[in-house]
Amino acid sequence: GLGVHSEKSSLRRGDVTAQIALQPALKFNGGGHINHSIFWTNLSPNGGGEPKGELLEAIKRDFGSFAKFKEKLTAVSVGVQGSGWGWLGFNKEQGRLQIAACSNQDPLQGTTGLIPLLGIDVWEHAYYLQYKNVRPDYLKAIWNVINWENVTARFTACSK
């Protein structure tokens, strides 16, 4: 696959496909305010790549590798029936990261007790125009705009 550097430079060169694809999600004003307020801060045109430091270590510890984590969160998100969310959450009792899916706009913490770190919106509106319901393609693109600094800040705040 493409290395992190080529992904980053293609975004800088103006490959804004991923950003355009997320526009409807960013404009969506319906339910799920909590989910969306997390989703917005999770994304950045300068995002992508891998997290660093403690978060990366925790991902490796709890999922085996970053690649396995990415695969699992993608699979869970692809598998959501209809509309919903794929989440990376923090289980405070067990002190570990967990992946979960929520249907519709159910908030992660209220539903599972996990603290939300990274949410992927798989409501059809989030990608329909760009990807015509090809959810796996949308999920591939979203990894290029994930703002790991934001996700790391959330992780640090709840794992103290």
TrEMBL record:
<dbReference type="GO" id="GO:0004784">
    <property type="term" value="F:superoxide dismutase activity"/>
</dbReference>
<feature type="domain" description="Manganese/iron superoxide dismutase C-terminal">
    <location>
        <begin position="51"/>
        <end position="154"/>
    </location>
</feature>
<feature type="binding site">
    <location>
        <position position="125"/>
    </location>
    <ligand>
        <name>Mn(2+)</name>
    </ligand>
</feature>
<comment type="similarity">
    <text>Belongs to the iron/manganese superoxide dismutase family.</text>
</comment>
<dbReference type="InterPro" id="IPR001189">
    <property type="entry name" value="Mn/Fe_SOD"/>
</dbReference>
<dbReference type="Pfam" id="PF02777">
    <property type="entry name" value="Sod_Fe_C"/>
</dbReference>
<comment type="function">
    <text>Destroys superoxide anion radicals which are normally produced within the cells and which are toxic to biological systems.</text>
</comment>
<comment type="subunit">
    <text>Homotetramer.</text>
</comment>
<keyword id="KW-0560">Oxidoreductase</keyword>
<dbReference type="GO" id="GO:0005759">
    <property type="term" value="C:mitochondrial matrix"/>
</dbReference>
<keyword id="KW-0479">Metal-binding</keyword>
<dbReference type="InterPro" id="IPR036324">
    <property type="entry name" value="Mn/Fe_SOD_N_sf"/>
</dbReference>
<dbReference type="InterPro" id="IPR050265">
    <property type="entry name" value="Fe/Mn_Superoxide_Dismutase"/>
</dbReference>
<keyword id="KW-0944">Nitration</keyword>
<dbReference type="InterPro" id="IPR019831">
    <property type="entry name" value="Mn/Fe_SOD_N"/>
</dbReference>
<dbReference type="InterPro" id="IPR019832">
    <property type="entry name" value="Mn/Fe_SOD_C"/>
</dbReference>
<feature type="domain" description="Manganese/iron superoxide dismutase N-terminal">
    <location>
        <begin position="13"/>
        <end position="44"/>
    </location>
</feature>
<comment type="function">
    <text>Destroys radicals which are normally produced within the cells and which are toxic to biological systems.</text>
</comment>
<dbReference type="InterPro" id="IPR036314">
    <property type="entry name" value="SOD_C_sf"/>
</dbReference>
<keyword id="KW-0464">Manganese</keyword>
<feature type="binding site">
    <location>
        <position position="36"/>
    </location>
    <ligand>
        <name>Mn(2+)</name>
    </ligand>
</feature>
<dbReference type="InterPro" id="IPR019833">
    <property type="entry name" value="Mn/Fe_SOD_BS"/>
</dbReference>
<protein>
    <recommendedName>
        <fullName>Superoxide dismutase</fullName>
        <ecNumber>1.15.1.1</ecNumber>
    </recommendedName>
</protein>
<dbReference type="GO" id="GO:0030145">
    <property type="term" value="F:manganese ion binding"/>
</dbReference>
<dbReference type="Pfam" id="PF00081">
    <property type="entry name" value="Sod_Fe_N"/>
</dbReference>
<feature type="binding site">
    <location>
        <position position="121"/>
    </location>
    <ligand>
        <name>Mn(2+)</name>
    </ligand>
</feature>
